[in-house]
């Protein structure tokens, strides 16, 4: 077997070596159950040695038990280079200009023709090649700020993104800003930017993809198109998240940045607005604004105020039966967001630890672990006792939003407790629609 092992070892590596194939080769594999063909995919070093992985023409991966393989035939060798991307379309001076800031994630990835996997890649030619419809709606200026999986992002990354957005907005060149981002923590970043970038005069839209662009079921192109159309033409300003509105490839939902949550691991419509409706639907290249329940700022009237500092000394603790109050005692932080049950409750055996933390100056806030609805801590005596201790109720603020807000408030607000109860960026809604 030529080249590296592709992550294979043991029985898998011996099998591939026997037939002279390596990761990235197009192969036909005959097993006891039948024949399949596709691209031989690389594996993680820690994966089982008893399987090889084939990417089928459908875009899905199939694991093949080494012991059942009768033969492997190489159809084509691994390609070293991808086909050349088409040239960037000529600029249309009549179109709005949008800045695209890439931070990584699935949407900023493309197929690696050597291994059959995906890798980070985003240039102007690659962008227009993957979403040629963009050229009809806006002139897009892409820039790679970082290439990170979203689970690796920290408040320091949020600050860098906020500062780059501020740079683009203050240049006066752009009708809007799009940020490509991994989906796993995109709602945290959207909330953080909502507080760090107050008074925005244009839309700032985070966009991601649940499935990479090399898969036939990819949502990357439609999401990017929807985000760009909204950033370029919507009559509102602020921070938003644009992702598939449903399972079909026909519409993108645009969510308010502090009111959105990822509610499914893999569905293309994984992102949902919580306790409000999406701000808009983008369909057929047009923006359809909705009555979201959140008062949105009009485009062009805001004056950007950048407050990009974050203090990560915040703990998000989810209460559960058997929760050990020692977790509160050992939380070495300046603020705690408790995800309580129902209307905002925790076991009374947590009260002494909560009281001790508050007496030490820790801001303790209560959100609900329920996805929909609001905290109401005056209904039962448990909630009233927690209020008497000094716990701050967070109404219908999403726990993840509250975590990002606390990190921002610790670094920027003179009174953190007061700031946590103020509606700064639509994170608290007065009424919840039925």
In a nutshell, what does this entry contain?
This protein is 23% helix and 26% strand. It has 434 residues and is of the alpha/beta class.
Content-based structural category: alpha/beta
Total of DSSP H or I helical runs spanning 4+ residues: 10
- Helix content range: 10-25%
CATH topology of the largest domain: Rossmann fold
CATH architectural arrangement of the largest domain = 3-Layer(aba) Sandwich
State the CATH class of the largest domain: Alpha Beta
| Fraction of residues in β-strands | 25-35%
- Average pLDDT confidence is 89
Uncertain regions spanning at least 5 consecutive residues? none
Query: CATH superfamily of the largest domain, please?
Result: L-asparaginase, N-terminal domain
Main β sheet profile: 9 strands, mixed
Bulk shape:
globular
- In total, the number of strands is 24
Span between termini? 62 Å
What is the CA-atom radius of gyration, in angstroms?
A: 25 Å
- How many structural domains are formed by the residues? 3
Structural description of this entry:
The protein has 434 residues and is an alpha/beta fold. The protein folds into three domains: 10-76, SH3 type barrels; 97-306, Rossmann fold (3-Layer(aba) Sandwich); 314-421, 3-Layer(aba) Sandwich (Rossmann fold). Helix content is 23%, strand content 26%. The protein contains ten helices and 24 strands. Strands 6, 9, 10, 12, 13, 14, 17, 18 and 19 form a nine-stranded mixed beta sheet that branches. β15 (260-262) and β16 (271-273) form a beta hairpin. α3 (155-170) packs across α4 and α4 (186-196) runs parallel beside α9 (399-412). The longest helix has 16 residues, at 155-170. The chain is globular, with a radius of gyration of 25 Å. The termini are far apart. The mean pLDDT is 89.
């Amino acid at each position: 077997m030529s080249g590296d092992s592709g992550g294979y070892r043991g029985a898998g590596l011996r099998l591939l070596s026997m037939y002279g194939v390596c990761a990235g080769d197009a192969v036909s594999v005959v097993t006891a159950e039948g024949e399949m063909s596709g691209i031989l995919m690389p594996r993680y070093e820690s994966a089982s040695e008893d399987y090889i992985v084939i990417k089928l023409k459908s875009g899905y991966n199939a694991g093949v038990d080494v012991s059942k393989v009768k033969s492997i035939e190489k159809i084509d060798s691994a390609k070293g280079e991808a086909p050349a991307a088409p040239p960037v379309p000529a600029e249309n001076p009549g179109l709005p200009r949008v800045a695209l800031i890439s931070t990584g994630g699935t949407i900023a990835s493309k197929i690696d023709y050597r291994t059959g996997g995906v890798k980070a890649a985003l240039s102007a030619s690659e962008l227009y090649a993957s979403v040629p419809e963009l050229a009809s709606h806006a002139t897009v200026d892409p820039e790679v700020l970082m290439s990170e999986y979203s689970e690796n992002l920290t408040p320091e990354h949020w600050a860098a993104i906020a500062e780059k957005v501020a740079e683009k907005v203050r240049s006066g060149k752009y009708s809007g800003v799009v940020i490509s981002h991994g989906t796993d923590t995109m709602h945290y970043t959207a909330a953080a930017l909502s507080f760090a970038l107050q008074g925005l005069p244009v839309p700032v839209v985070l966009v991601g993809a649940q499935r990479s662009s090399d898969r036939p079921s990819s949502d990357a192109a439609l999401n990017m198109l929807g985000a760009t159309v909204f950033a370029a033409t919507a009559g509102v300003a602020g921070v938003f998240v644009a992702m598939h509105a449903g399972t079909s490839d026909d519409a993108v939902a645009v969510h308010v940045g502090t009111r959105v949550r990822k509610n499914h691991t893999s569905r293309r419509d994984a992102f949902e607005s919580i306790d409000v409706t999406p701000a808009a639907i983008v369909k057929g290249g047009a923006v359809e604004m909705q009555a979201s329940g959140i008062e949105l700022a009009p485009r062009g009237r805001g004056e950007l105020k950048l407050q990009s500092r974050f203090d990560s000394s915040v703990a998000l603790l989810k209460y559960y039966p058997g929760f050990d109050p020692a977790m509160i005692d050992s939380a070495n932080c300046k603020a705690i967001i408790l995800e309580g049950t129902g209307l905002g409750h925790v076991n009374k055996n947590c009260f002494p630890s909560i009281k001790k933390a508050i007496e030490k100056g820790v801001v303790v806030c209560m959100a609900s672990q329920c996805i929909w609805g609001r905290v109401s801590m005056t209904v039962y005596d448990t909630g009233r006792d927690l209020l008497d201790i000094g716990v701050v109720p967070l109404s219908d603020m999403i726990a993840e939003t509250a975590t990002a807000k606390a990190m921002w408030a610790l670094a920027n607000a003179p009174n953190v407790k007061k700031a946590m109860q103020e509606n700064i960026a639509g994170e608290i809604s007065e009424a919840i629609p039925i």
